[in-house]
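[Help] Beginner question about ligand-bound structures

Sorry if this is basic. My supervisor gave me a protein sequence and a SMILES string for zinc ion and asked me to "get the holo structure". I don't really know what that means in practice or what format the answer should be in. Inputs are pasted below exactly as I got them.
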Amino acid sequence: MGTVRIGAPVTSDGPAWPERDAPSVAKILQSTLTCPECGFASSETMPTDACQYYHECQACGLLLKPLEGDCCVFCSYGSVPCPPVQVPQPSCIDDDQARD
Ligand SMILES: [Zn+2]
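Answer (accepted):
No worries, everyone starts somewhere. Holo just means with the ligand present. The predicted complex, written as structure tokens, is below.
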């Protein structure tokens, strides 16, 4: 008795999680875009040298466009603001502006 049964098999050779070999990430280039229409979230890689203005939802086909005051769809619908916003830049300040 006393045999503890675990649902998942335990690997005995090494850690369960792959080691993260992130090369000193200064900016986050992965953002999760959430469609305001259907709620579908997709992980997208952001371009570092340009703002992506449009994004088509893969679920419902809605063309996402930045909200007023935002420079790209990542700022409006993404989990992470676009790279130009992540670095201090006076031209792209996201200051929780009152919309409507
Ligand atoms: Zn959608």
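A couple of things worth pointing out: Residues 30-88 form one domain. The chain has a mean pLDDT of 77. Feel free to follow up in the thread.
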